[in-house]
Automatic annotation (TrEMBL):
<dbReference type="InterPro" id="IPR003018">
    <property type="entry name" value="GAF"/>
</dbReference>
<dbReference type="InterPro" id="IPR029016">
    <property type="entry name" value="GAF-like_dom_sf"/>
</dbReference>
<feature type="domain" description="GAF">
    <location>
        <begin position="147"/>
        <end position="313"/>
    </location>
</feature>
<dbReference type="Pfam" id="PF13185">
    <property type="entry name" value="GAF_2"/>
</dbReference>
<protein>
    <submittedName>
        <fullName>GAF domain-containing protein</fullName>
    </submittedName>
</protein>
<keyword id="KW-0175">Coiled coil</keyword>
<feature type="coiled-coil region">
    <location>
        <begin position="312"/>
        <end position="357"/>
    </location>
</feature>
Amino acid sequence: MTAAPGRHTHGEPGQAAEDDLRALFGRSTVMFASLVGPEHLVDTANPAFFATFAGQRARTGPTPLGELVPELAEQGFIAVLDEVRRTGESHTGHDVRIVLGTGLHAREAFFDFTHEPRRDPDGTVTGIRVIGVETTQAKHAQHLMTEHRALLEQIARQAPLTEVLDGMARCIETLSPQEVLVSVLLAEPDGLHLRHGAAPSLPDFYNRAIDGIATGEGVGSCGTAAHRREPVIVTDIATDPFWDDFRDLADRAGVAACWSTPILARDGSLLGTFAMYHRVPRVPQDSDFALARVFADTAALAVERHHDEQARRDAETRLEAAHDDLAKAVRTERELRAEAEQRAAAAAELAERMRAAAAAQAAVPHPERCGLGGADGCTAPAELKVADSWGDSSWGCQAHVEEAMINVRSAFIANEDLGGLAAYINRRPAGRPRVD
C-alpha cells in the first residue's frame, strides 16, 4: 500500500475501515484508491493502482487524479467520479474501455469498476473509493475465442485458403497487446521452398522478395524453422547470423525481430511457417508462444483442409475427364461401326449390281470382232467380255480389254458363266482353240 507523502490519517473518522482496506488490497492485483475532495485527490492507493494508471509518472504528494492520469478526463472517467460525489450514490461499470498512455506507448485496457462515496460522520460525501479489476486479458481471451471460432467456421465452410490466412493474420495483429506483423508462408510440395500465403501488414516489396525462399539452416527465421521443424526465435535481426542475407531487406521493411513457428501436418510433414514480426528487438513472453501455437495449429487445419479439398477436386476432375474420354470413345466406336455397316451395305449393293449387270450381259450375242477399238475400230477377235456396274458391256480383244479396265472405273471381265475374273485368268491367246 502506498500512502501519499505528508498525509497523516491516524485518528481521523473511519480510520479503522481505511486500514482494513489497505490490508485487504495492499498486495492484491485488484486496484484500490481512496480519493478526496472535489478534485479527487489521490489520498491512498495500492501499488496495482499506481502501476496500472500512473506507470512511471512521478508522484509528489496528494495529486488530483486528472493531473496524475490526464487521459482519464477525456474518456469520461472523471465525469463519473463527479456524478458519484454529487449524488452520493455508488456506481458500477463493467468492461469499461480506457486508453492508457499516449502516442506509441498508448494501450487499450478494460476494467470493472466500483465507485463508492466516502462520508464523514454527518453523512457528507468527502471522497470516493475506487475499486477496479482489469479485464483486458479476459476481454482479449473472449475476442480470441470469437475470432478463432469464426476462423474455424470459415475452414468448415471451405472458404478460400487466402481468405482464411489473411483473416487469421489480421486477427492476431489485432489481438496482440504490442504491435506485431504476421506472415504465413506455404511450403511447396517438395518442401524445399516457401511461397507467400498471407502478410497483410508487411510491405509488398518484402513479401515479393521472400516469396519462394529456400528452406534450410540459417535461411532467416522461416527458412530455418521449416528446415528444423521447430520454432526459431530471432530477438534482434540486426545481430543474428540467420539474417545475414536478409538484414538490409528487413531494415527497409522496418522489422527488427522475427519469431517463426513451423506449420506441420498431422503426419509431421511441412505445410508452411507462421511468423510474428516486431518493429523493435523483443523477447517473446509465454503468452506470445501460446498465441503462436494456437494459430499455427489453426493454420495447419486450414492448409490441410485446403489440400484435401484440392485433391478431391483434382480427383473429380480426372474422373470427369475419364468419363468424357470413355463417352467419346463409345461415340467414336458407334460412329465407326455405323460407317463400317454403311460401307458393307454399299459394297453388298455394288456387288449385287455387278452380278445383276453380268447376268444381264450374259445373254447378249457374242460378236466376232473387238468392239473396244474406238472410232478406228479393231479387227482382232473378240475374246473377252468387259462390263461395268452401270450395266454397259462390250466384247474385245485382250489388249483393248486391259486398256478399258485401266481407264474405266468399275470395269470388270464377265462371261456367260458369270465367272468374272476367272474368265480373264483362263483366257486363251488370239487364234488358240478353247480347251474346256
